[in-house]
Design brief:
The chain is α+β, with helices and mostly antiparallel strands. The protein has helices at about 1-30, 95-130, 135-170, 215-220, 380-385; strands at about 35-40, 40-55, 60-65, 70-75, 80-85, 90, 170-175, 180, 190, 200, 205-215, 230-235, 245-250, 260-270, 280-300, 305, 310-315, 320-330, 335-340, 345-350, 360-365.
């Protein structure tokens, strides 16, 4: 009897120990599950983006040269300033030109006096001819002299007009609104008409960006675009992380370049804040007109397996599953998935960095951050874009 009680007690103790051991093992297993961030995939309307590189060009650029030769007497601008059309920039020594104008004015006075005398003599000759007091030959000679005096006066007046223009051209003014560069030739130096480059001026209110689109892309994504439709584009300058400048297409060339198979296109950007400079390297983003809905996930959620791309999805019992995917356009730190995922799928946000397929995990639900990311190119305020056209 005593032996029987001892056996029962031992058996009961063993059951208790086994139960505690299993509970401890279960708790330990749960504690050792890898915690990972998971998120439900997004489904967004998106446009296909196309990126092109270019350099900005000013619509108007002037290499300023004098129209007359002379010596620079004064420089009337500060280098690098904004100038307006008609502003005085350089002044040449005008004394030689003033002298020419004064000489011609004096010659005109003399020519007018000679013309008045020739007219008087011609009238007198006409009266004498009626009375046959003068020969026809003498009358014609006086008439010819009158015509010569008239021609001499007209020539002198034309020379005076030219001399006055030359005098006016000694004041060299800005032909456009823009930003002026440095003075290439300084005060006291002689300049030659149509040869000496005094400085350069570039207009700054707008900037052009020319880029080439290959024929296949144009026909598949942009065939319905015209210059009149003002297709929106965005631009990123070197050193910037975002495409902060908005513009639109205002010119499409009239033919495909047969040598390159590309079409030349131009975008225009208003520079209200004077942040753009001619010659700057830039990247242009152009969105196709067609909008489609696609699955969006973080770029870091995508893994690479030889030539394949895959993501880890959360399956039953929180076990990770391997899914092949095909990737589409990139939108900031996010990526469109064209096949392999569906709405409602839950993915490992950080990809296969610390986990793999078939592993049970401890999921931590997070949301995919889309702040500051444009999936479609929003319509621009066309009134503000074309206000300075």
């Amino acid at each position: 009897m005593k032996k029987h009680l001892i056996a029962v007690t031992l058996a009961f103790s063993s059951l208790i120990l086994v139960g505690c051991s299993e509970q401890a093992n279960n708790q330990a297993g749960q504690q050792h599950l890898q915690p990972i961030d998971v998120a439900q995939v997004l489904v967004k309307p998106v446009q296909s983006w196309h990126t092109y590189t270019t350099r900005l060009e000013s619509p108007e650029q002037v290499a300023l040269m004098p129209r007359v030769s002379g010596v620079i007497d004064n420089i009337a601008f500060h280098e690098g300033d904004a100038v307006k059309q008609g502003d005085l920039l350089f002044k040449l020594d005008d004394r030689p030109f003033v002298a020419v104008v004064d000489t011609l004015k004096a010659q005109i006075i003399s020519a007018k006096a000679a013309l008045a005398q020739a007219k008087s003599e011609a009238k007198r000759a006409a009266r004498l001819t009626e009375r046959k007091a003068i020969s026809t030959e003498q009358a014609e000679s006086r008439t010819s002299t009158l015509r010569q005096r008239e021609a001499q006066l007209a020539a002198l007046q034309a020379q005076l007009t030219s001399a006055q223009l030359d005098l006016e051209f000694t004041a060299i003014r800005s032909p456009i609104d823009g930003v002026i560069s440095r003075a290439n030739i300084t005060k006291g130096n002689n300049v030659l008409a149509g040869q000496s480059i005094l400085t350069t001026i570039v207009s700054s209110e707008r900037m052009y960006a020319y880029f080439d689109i290959d024929e296949r892309t144009w026909n598949s994504a942009f065939t319905n675009i015209t210059a009149e439709s003002k297709q929106p584009v965005v631009m990123q300058k070197v050193g910037q992380s975002a495409f902060t400048h908005q513009g639109f297409i205002d010119f499409i060339d009239n033919q495909i370049d047969p040598a390159t198979g590309t079409l030349r296109v131009r975008a225009v950007f208003n520079d209200d804040n004077e942040q753009l400079r001619a010659g700057s390297f830039a990247r242009i983003k152009l969105a196709a007109n067609r909008i489609t809905e696609q699955v969006i996930i973080p770029e870091r959620a995508i893994g690479t397996d030889l030539k394949n791309r895959f993501v880890l999805t959360l399956g039953e019992n929180n076990i990770l599953q391997y899914k092949l995917v095909k990737i589409g356009e990139r939108y900031g730190k996010l990526r469109a998935i064209t096949s392999g995922l569906e709405s409602g799928d839950v993915i490992a946000v950080n990809g296969p960095a610390r986990v793999g397929p078939g592993m049970p995990v401890n999921p931590n639900n997070v949301a995919i951050d889309t702040s500051g990311i444009a999936f479609t190119l929003a319509p621009l305020d066309q009134a503000s874009l074309v206000a300075k056209q």
